[in-house]
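in:
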């Protein structure tokens, strides 16, 4: 039977806490870098920008969990409880987000979105590590670490990007003939911001310009911070259908490597009673995992974009 490891003197405990946090975060950073470097050598990713290579690859399940295990290995002589592990995981989260902002130039909104998942997985790793390493690491338990690192390295090569669509509709108390002219282009939206991410800095739609009412016409959807999404009309049926491909994205840290909006569409349905149903859709490709977590955020953000534009269309048509 293995004997418990002796406790550290009080003067070394705080130093060990900080050392564990730094070592855990450093292991996460090295694993991210290693995965990004290996993935960049794959023929199917050559030619991508460096930022894209580094941000689309790592799994937010595996890599932070690995970092939590490494940290718990450093803390095994501290015998931390649940409260101590949670506080240390929070410290690791803050340090990791600061490093991501400083080194990888991640946007603040992206860091806010990823922080809950990062904390949960770090905390899970530290708790599992406390259970496994609390008395003596042992060869079998230590073998978990390289095995988990190997799985994290291999996981990106076994998945593909996920395409989705967000669809919203509203009822407008005006005939389609009055709604349609408001779709092709519109002046700056005067409505105040309601969506909480818009209010803390996420770019939001401001206005749209159009090069003409025909298939092949160029459009510009202008967001705050002078972000411009360049578009080209692919389907134009007056009074019914306006569909456009998004041909060029702004170089913004909230977008690069995370998500690619590909197509937008407005559909009008005349209800025959003087009202019109306006349906707005956006097709996109999501590059980050876990899909269920980031897809939820993506749907929420696109829905906020849709409703800000569509509510403005409704206001102008009904007035």
């Amino acid at each position: 039977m293995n004997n418990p490891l002796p406790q550290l003197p009080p003067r070394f405990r705080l130093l060990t806490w900080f050392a564990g946090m730094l070592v855990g975060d450093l292991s996460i950073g090295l694993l991210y870098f290693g995965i990004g470097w290996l993935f960049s050598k794959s023929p199917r990713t050559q030619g991508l920008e460096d930022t894209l290579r580094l941000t689309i690859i790592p799994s937010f399940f595996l890599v932070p969990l690995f970092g939590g295990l490494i940290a718990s290995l450093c803390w095994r002589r501290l015998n931390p409880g649940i409260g101590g592990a949670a506080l240390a995981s929070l410290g690791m989260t803050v340090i990791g987000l600061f490093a991501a902002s400083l080194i990888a130039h991640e946007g603040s909104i992206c860091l806010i979105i990823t922080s809950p998942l990062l904390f949960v997985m770090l905390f899970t790793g530290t708790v599992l590590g406390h259970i496994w390493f609390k008395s003596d690491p042992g060869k079998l338990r230590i073998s978990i670490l390289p095995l988990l690192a190997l799985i994290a390295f291999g996981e990106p090569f076994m998945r593909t990007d996920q395409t989705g669509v967000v669809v919203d509709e509203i009822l407008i108390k005006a005939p389609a003939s009055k709604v349609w002219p408001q779709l092709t282009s519109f002046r700056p939206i005067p409505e105040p911001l309601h969506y909480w991410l818009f209010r803390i800095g996420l770019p939001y739609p401001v206005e749209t310009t159009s090069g003409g009412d025909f298939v092949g016409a160029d459009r510009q959807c202008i967001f705050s911070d002078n972000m411009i999404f360049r578009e080209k009309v692919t389907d134009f049926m007056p009074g019914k259908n306006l569909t456009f491909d998004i041909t060029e994205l702004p170089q913004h840290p909230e977008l690069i490597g995370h998500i690619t909006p590909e197509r937008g569409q407005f559909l009008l349905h005349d209800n025959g009673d003087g009202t019109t149903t306006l349906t707005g859709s956006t097709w996109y490709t999501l590059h980050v995992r876990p899909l269920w977590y980031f897809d939820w955020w993506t749907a929420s953000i696109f829905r906020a974009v849709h409703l800000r534009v569509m509510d403005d269309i409704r206001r102008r048509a009904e007035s």
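note: Residues 13 and 78 are 7 Å apart (CA to CA).
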